[in-house]
């Protein structure tokens, strides 16, 4: 199986599904994440919403980041474990969003950000010394610092409800990527123990005290 082809197919499905949503409001409303509809039993939205996007910029950014980080996991672990991390992180993002916004019946969201956040976290656990750029800083940032900063900012954003951004999905996806990487590749425990502990601290604190963010 051509690994790159599988990734391109996944990106292609995101693009086609999203464009359909851009041009068909009924389709968009039927498959987006919405608390009330999910509570009524439409659980499929927790998956399908991850293939819809708000606009072309949202779609392009998520697919670009996926294209950059996915090969790091695919090249090291193979396509099956990558797909486990991708879809597991997407589901984890939806679960945390559902839990955090459970009383907001009209809350809705779309995007692959949860899945992408999980892929980013998984890639960082594999290669914590990679360097990344975070706008507007003009200097490279070590991957483990980027991951920690990303999660802390998302927690702050969820607490303050900053912007029209699904911070809960980002956090849930990151937690999913973290946990699933440890599950499918436990060697990272010994290879990068310091990074595992550093990125795990805010996750444990969030799980223990997350209810106080509301």
Automatic annotation (TrEMBL):
Pfam families: Rhomboid (PF01694). GO terms for molecular function: serine-type endopeptidase activity. It is found in: Membrane. It is a multi-pass membrane protein. Its main location: membrane. SUPFAM superfamilies: Rhomboid-like (SSF144091). GO terms for cellular component: membrane. It comes from the Bacteria. InterPro entries: Peptidase_S54_rhomboid_dom, Rhomboid-like_sf, Rhomboid_protease_S54. Belongs to the peptidase S54 family. This is Rhomboid family protein.
């Amino acid at each position: 199986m051509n690994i790159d082809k599988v990734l391109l197919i996944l990106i292609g499905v995101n693009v086609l599904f999203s464009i359909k949503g851009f041009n068909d409001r009924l389709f968009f409303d039927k498959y987006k994440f919405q608390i009330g509809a999910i509570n009524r039993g439409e659980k499929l939205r927790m998956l399908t919403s991850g293939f819809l996007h708000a606009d072309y910029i949202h779609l392009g950014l998520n697919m670009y980041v996926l294209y950059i980080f996915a090969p790091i996991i695919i090249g090291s672990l193979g396509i099956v474990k990558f797909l486990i991390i991708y879809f597991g992180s997407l589901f984890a993002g939806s679960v945390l969003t559902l839990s955090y916004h459970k009383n907001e019946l009209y809350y809705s969201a779309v995007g692959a950000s949860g899945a992408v956040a999980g892929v980013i976290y998984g890639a960082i656990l594999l290669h914590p010394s990679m360097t990344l750029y975070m706008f507007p800083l003009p200097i490279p940032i070590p991957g483990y610092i980027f991951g920690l900063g990303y999660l802390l900012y998302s927690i702050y954003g969820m607490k303050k409800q900053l912007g029209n951004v699904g911070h809960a999905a980002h956090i849930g996806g990151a937690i999913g990527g973290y946990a699933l990487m440890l599950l499918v590749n436990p060697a990272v425990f010994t290879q990068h123990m310091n990074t595992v502990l550093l990125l795990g601290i805010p996750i444990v604190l969030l799980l223990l005290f997350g209810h106080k963010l509301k």
